[in-house]
Amino acid sequence: MKTERARATPSRYELLLVIAVMLMAAFFRFYKLDLVPPGLQHDEIFKAKGALRILDGTFLIFSEPNAGELPFFMYLVALSFQLLGKNLLAIRLAAVTCGLAGILASWLLARELFGRWVGLLSVAFLAVSFWHVFDSRVGLEPITVPLMATLSFYFLWLGLYRGGYHFFALAGLCLGLSNYTYQSGILVPVTAFLFTLYLLVIDRGLVRKHLKGLALLFAIAFLVFAPLGHYVLTHYQTSMARVGQLSHHVSLLLSGDPRPVLEDGLKVAGMFSWQGDPEWRYNVAGRPVFDWITALAFYAGLLICVLRIKKPQYGLLLLWLPVNLLASAVTPPSPSSLRALGAIIPIYIMPALAIVALGRWAAKRKGRVGAYGVGAAIIVLLAFTAASTYRDYFVVWAQNDEVRRVYRADLAEVARYLSTQGERGMVCISAQFAADLDQEAFYFALGRGRSIKWFNGRSALVFPSETLPGDVTYIFPATGLPDGEMLERFFGHLTPVKEALDPQGRPAFLVYRLGASEMSALRSIQPQYPLAANLGGQLELLGYDLPSSIQAGQTVRLVLYYRIPSELGGRRNYSFFAHLVDGRGYLWGRDDAFGYPTSNWYGGDMAVQWLDVFVPPDVPPRSYHFEVGLYDQDGGQPFPVLDEAGSPVATAVTLEPFTVRKAAVPPSAASLGIPNPLQARVGDQFTFLGYDISQRVLNPGQSAHVSLYWQTMARPDRDYLVSTYLVDERGKVWPQSSRQALDGDYPTSLWEAGQVVRDRFDLVIDPETPRAVYELRVGLYDEEAQSYLPVVVSSTVSSEEGVPSESISLGQMLVRGRKRQFEVPPIEHPLTACFGEVVSLLGYDLEEDEIAPGGALHLTLYWQAQQEMDISYTVFVHLLDGQNRIWGQRDSVPDGGQYPTTGWLAGEVVEDKYEIAVDPSAPPGEYLIEVGLYDATQPGYPRLPVLDEQGQVIGDRVLLREVKIKP
Fold it and tell me: In terms of pTM, does the model score above 0.85?
């Protein structure tokens, strides 16, 4: 093939220029590597943790944390850890090495394709490119994509035009490994395949000549990819989680809406000269790839490639560029410098093509003067690019507030500060992600030789046990700084011993050092409302603070005080919850938080946790209370509140009631986020704003939670009833409920003019309601006038617009019928147990009487309703050992939640099936099954009593036959 190409062996002069370029590249990649980026971002931590797993002996094909990541870069970091130790620089040096190796590989490829001057100039621009400098200095995997892509195409080209199966084998190896680099790395083998098809069109003889070599290439690539391919097929959801997060635009495209992909494609096209990656995390936000002069050279180089498309080297660039930009074009946000990184090599070869062509034209027209003139312009352009990269990266980007936050610059500065301090007692550091990621970022910067307690000062404070010796040093980085109220409350009387400032002159971190007397004073602070509550044996709740005045539309801060009775010896994913609840048990607001990680607990530690609960502006002014508890986020179940004997008495601590005042200014309907807005005038005093309904398909006896949003036009003169009913297809009315607003807790006569009120209630479908599709309607009923207030719907979303009526349509509901049974069927184990004179247990069927740990018991209970019930009871089925410890449990509304007791008719027999999973760690022996019912809507979950024939209470459970757990 006749192409203009450099000699096989570079001249000394060329090598000196390459060395100079590599030294320039090394400067930009090593300079202040420990300081810029200003710390470790969390994505880098996941790479480091994957590397540690590899060093511990795990063979990674795919790393599942962080929505799934590919492991190639992690193996490089693991090697770096082995050579340099487990620290920040080792993480970064893995990326630096890939970046420099990629530049060298790019020179080899560009030189082979287009000659020595294109090779030199392309890597010179690459060496000082902000884009490449950035990705070479941050410990993330995308920098491996251009390296493997360049090596793949270099060896492929050598195989095609120099011959030799070893080149095809190396190309196949690199193509296969590209799949392990980054999600967009899969586009590298796609590009190679398309290039092979392209060669079939323009030079079929070349493909035939090297058919065996190409077969070897793709065979090796497939074999290298096979383990990952097998993992994807067997772990599809896990392996595709990250792709799924970014596939929204692709889903729209496949459904017939190409607009988002086209818009993002235009953004990607504009990244070269108009607007680049918008995220400060990866770029100076919006900075394009090129300045305007280099951008013109890029577009000219692109045009040259198009005009010479029949030449393979140009065809390769024209395939490489768009295919590897696809990942950025089809996944938001666009453009993404990380996802486009696979295309960076052709992007920087193209301006070199144009400039070299310009130089040759100038030399031809003006001789040496022209050539030297272009050479001088190149030097000026490179110097300008290098200077702007230095300024934008080391000054503008490194000092940006968002960059400092993302890269945890304050934690890195704290680590450097502590490295200058001697051991002086306990150190307590606040961090936003105190349980894991911020700890790791800190330890990679400092090392693990220091005793440190971690907490999240944005929501908690910890006071170490008085048994721990020495002073206590508190350090509050900017990302973990408590708000002014809490900092002043607990530390306002103290003077920081150190106040470091960030580049903008704001606090980077604060340091307080407290002696024994000062710590004693902190531990002695008393809560406003003392109490003593044992939360599952995990911690002791000592009391709480709560503002005396609480108003709707504002955020209320609940401050909890607690003590740690003992160490847990590991990390648990605990959280407090605080539920704002009214007298009917409805939840109006909540917050979950836990700022003192369990891995830092020490017996005797005290801590303060605050939870900020927003009180919606449409909360009616009446009495409320907080329910507070602790739960394990991994299991979701709250820890029981224990009495002095260690027995569970509740699932939450109920705090003292308080009154919420109405919002100072009525909220607008738009601000409420009403799920189903619907404007209607009801009489002369009310406007109906809309509604929400939890479900529209119900069985008889089931309930749907309904919220009605009202606003008064004038102060109501009396109490109106809120009436709801169903209307079937024949127009027959099936009454469901007629009640005062908020069940009489806040009737309409108390509402003020202009006030917005949300009325909530549970609509229970009458047990006698037949199967049909109904229309649900609601109206306000005047008992004195014995009539409904007239309704005029003004919302354009309703077909009833402008039509007067007595009620408002809330849409359709399906009531599913159920075949009822009143005769008792054959029962394997009949018995008679009466629960509270409302329901009887007639017996049960049990499929297994012997089972292995980890298995499941299959139990059918036979109930008979003694009367209709207005409470939906929950059935509990527990597998107990001889000490009444639970080794298997199933609590559920009957029939898997589909047939609540509120739907049963008197005398009806109900078959109720359960599958009870047995704890895999259950020891062998004899076990009993206990069965009963409780009211899950009441505090403490009161159980229905079991009565004897005389009506006397004999317990609150029924024990069934024994079950044997096999060894």
Answer: no
